[in-house]
């Protein structure tokens, strides 16, 4: 665990002035749909826990799910998408599977189906994007977005960059990221140089890795927002949108405020969950999918229009 530190050294707005992304038609600059009253953001993680990649630092590397677990994952996802389809209020969804979802047809179908629902503001997924991209042609690209992670030990630079070029050509909204391990540094530099300016490359601080100021400066030159990831955010007693406008849901519909606080707040399907603002009960928050919702970070402004897919409003 990295030591807690206030984020006073977080990236300043001028660090972000490295070119401007064209305004996204569905989400004009200056606001995020998550700010709408009644809007609910859901981080969904079903039973799936397998991956086609074999990253050394990951517990899901090359893990296989039994046919029973895959069937359960599919049924749970279909139940969830049915619930979302029946809502009368705006919803955004980020799929955060343990492992890789898009190699499974039901995740691709869920992304496409949810993207076409008028009350779904955004549907995004964390993915290694090893899947073929053809299915994206069926989606509403004003709503769908991808959070893509580059794993240099698992895919060649050329193949990964071809995938990124394909996504750009299709007009898909996506961010690309890499874990800030020393052995990834040259890969990250090459990737940044190869990606169009309008594609944001994020760098995640490696789990348990302490960065000297000099090391942090090197990574910050690649991702101006790396200071937000460098050390955990102190969160105890601080206001966090989770539990109110943001929730975590598992395959059974069990609702928790986020993926990191185990207390159950109710169930999505039996109506026992009630939204309520409450401060964070943990000492620190160390993961972007959590601290982006922690109000003192101010990250809803930094990522306005792209909170779930991790795309800053000014690139
Ligand atoms: S791609 Fe992601 S889920 Fe798969 S092994 Fe690598 S880190 Fe784990
Ligand atoms: S700050 Fe992080 S750990 Fe705390 S409630 Fe929010 S998302 Fe969860």
UniProtKB/TrEMBL annotation:
Source taxon at top rank: Bacteria
Region (Disordered): 1-36
CDD domains assigned: Radical_SAM (cd01335)
InterPro entries to which the protein is assigned, alphabetical: Aldolase_TIM, Radical_SAM_STM4011-like, rSAM_sf
NCBIfam families: rSAM_STM4011
Protein name per its UniProtKB record: Membrane protein
